[in-house]
Description:
single chain, 367 residues, isomerase
Amino acid sequence: xxxxFVFGTRPEGIKMAPIIKEIQKRxxxxxxxxxxxxxxxxxxQVLEIFDIVPDYDLNxxxxxxxxxxxxxxxxxxxEKVLDELKPDILLxxxxxxxxxxxxxxxxxxxxxxxxxxxxxxxxNIYSPYPEEANRKLTGIVTNFHFAPTIANKNNxxxxxxxxxxxxxxxxxxxxxxxxxxxxxxxxxxxxLDNIDYNKDVILLTSHRRENWGEPMENIFSAVKRxxxxxxxxxxxxxxxxxxxxxxxxxxxxSDLDRVHLIEPLSYLPFSNxxxxxxxxxxxxxxxxxxxxxxxxxxxxxxxxxxxMEGIEAKTAKLIGTEYSDVYNNIISLLDxxxxxxxxxxxxxxxxxxxxxxxxxxxxxxxx
Length: 367
């Protein structure tokens, strides 16, 4: 059996890596990897960390590329790969434009599609954008839905998918953390290695398109006020490469000594940084899954999330993007020890770190 992994961004690479590593242990499966390069630098870092050498690299990245360009370049590039390789199953992960385009390319060739992290839904087609549409469109041409949680499975059942095609596996992001987090990790970064993590150190990440503009201004303004009022608070903000995000970040934080604007971190240092901070403020999807497994509460600065399991388990709290809501929730988590401990000790609903093995076992069985 031939299995082709296709991914194009850092988050996909991180979550695919444990499956690639697991499948390489199996004698009955030939596995191949194709990267689209939707992201370039950040994706290459993940490939290096997990020692993955792609068999195919479409290298589609272009500065300022549109969603249309990503889609069409992926379709055209993958057509050649699929004609040459003729895989039995194409595996995609998540909800990027690479995922949708790769699944569509496989469908056009009548190749079966396995969707890792299937069934996430926010309920708003434009939030997150374009991810909510990508994951729903991918589901339509998917043969094997690998859903992290029961809630994800139920989302798919409500949309009419056959229960026999849905498998609950947990999320491979927890598997990936096993490889990466070390207690005595050294960053090799002057700022990160010299911060006193006994203080109230908060990790901030924000980059989503739907937060560009006023929502992001609200978030950063609230964080700035907290820093100005609390001498024990330090913020570490790995600033996304997008110039819109960078401009707003500099507007609010460039003159604050205790807000550390740093370059984006590769997976290893980012995972280990999560392990050291007090809590996380983020609009990222993956961080909502990762941080709780390290005992770190998460404040989600979004109006909707497709990861409601964490909200319901109280590992994360959905706080929106209004200035007062962001400010008040940060202060509450800093001051209310009972609230903090409740979130930090809640059980992570996203699995036990064995998702990759479950997925590969299923692939072996269903072929």
